[in-house]
Amino acid sequence: MMRALTARQLAFGWLHFALALPSIYLLLGMPLVLREQGWSGTQIGLLQLAGLPAVLKLVMAVPVERCRLGGGGYRAWAGLLGLLLGLALLGLAYDFPLAQPPRFYAWVLLISWLATWADVPVNALAIRCLPVEERLRAGGIRSAALFLAAVVGGGLLLVVHERSGEAVPFVLMALLLAVGGLLLRWISVPAEAGRQRYVSAAEAVQPVSHKGAMGFVRQPAAGLWVALLMLLFPFVGAGWVYLKPLLLDLGMPVEQVAWWVGVGGGIAGALASLAGQRLARSVGLGRALPLLAALATLALATLGGVGYMAAGHALWLVGAGLLACAMGALSGVMFGLMMHFARSGYQALDYGLQASLFTLSRLAVPVLAGILLDRLGYPAMFTALALGMAAVTVMALLGGSILQGAISKSGEVR
């Protein structure tokens, strides 16, 4: 049984990896190339708005939840949207208009929209297929998969771009999606009968009247969770967006940035993702959340302090390593909590709602940070992000025990 669960977790991990890779390459890897091409900080920040479709995940979740698409349900939706995403990647492979920003924005927006939509049925399928006690672990695996996507999209594919040309990375990403499509056919969905292990105690006691999106906010501690969901990640995420352009501006070669930050930082984040969920299971969310938020504050403050010191590359890379670990650990725990707060029968809807709220703040902060960068420079930008993260740490310290108490009945964490 454990072997089957592990195989299922790894299959979903691959699907998360293949779906996240295009957006990571375009939104986190390409800023390095765009900076090399002369794009400004504001232009790079505006590129992040191509991730706006993720704000509409709640809207995208409605047809996924209500239309079974030929009787196939979540799996059929994931397969169709994955196919369309692969075709869009092949289209951009042979039309790469870096000199025409509006056209490039349009391609990135299309790819981001399809990847975002496909993410909804894949995560709903994962919530339906994995037992309650596996959800926090699933969050760690998903986060690790996203950081491995960062290794490939923010590092290795940049090296491929430099050495083999602009089309090859997109063809490779389309092939990885094709492998994911094969895995979709292999994943088995548990029958409705005997699915007690797949429904948490919190879900089991949901009154019948708790239907639709409003039922989500009636869950215990849902309001606190929404606040943390929107604030725990965007400050560290914004810092990561501008880390590669920063090192390029400091004179580090493109390929070296790709290896040190893209590959090295991605591996550190993946390992931290797995460690973060273990920390939450061992010491409890009430202690884990403020500890991880404090680590994120330390990482951003380190980058700000190094900037004011005008230090060399080595200290910048230390700050980058701390930031990668903070991002990985935080995101692993957050993805597990998102699965917990998705009610039985409303997996796609509740996941879409949470993802929309998460993305809304995640996209706004990099734009503001880019404007701050152009006006005041890197040290001031990282210092401002550190101050914002410090405020979130206080919120996590005050509310972590409340959140832990609300979800402890499900048996997912201590």
UniProtKB/TrEMBL annotation:
Q: What is this protein called?
A: MFS transporter
Q: What is its main location?
A: membrane
Q: Which organism is it from?
A: Vreelandella titanicae
PANTHER family per the record?
MAJOR FACILITATOR SUPERFAMILY DOMAIN-CONTAINING PROTEIN 3, SOLUTE CARRIER FAMILY 33 ACETYL-COA TRANSPORTER -RELATED
- Give the residues annotated as coiled coil: none
A molecular function annotated in GO for this UniProt entry is: transmembrane transporter activity
* Superkingdom: Bacteria
Places the protein is found: Membrane
Topology class, membrane? Multi-pass membrane protein
Asked if the record carries the keyword Transferase, the reply is no
**Transmembrane segment boundaries:** 44-64, 76-94, 106-127, 139-161, 167-187, 221-242, 257-276, 288-310, 316-339, 351-372, 378-399
Q: Which GO terms describe its cellular component?
A: membrane
Give a yes or no for keyword Oxidoreductase in this entry. no
Q: Name one Pfam family in it.
A: MFS_1
Identify the keywords attached in UniProt to this record, alphabetized. Answer: Membrane, Transmembrane, Transmembrane helix, Transport
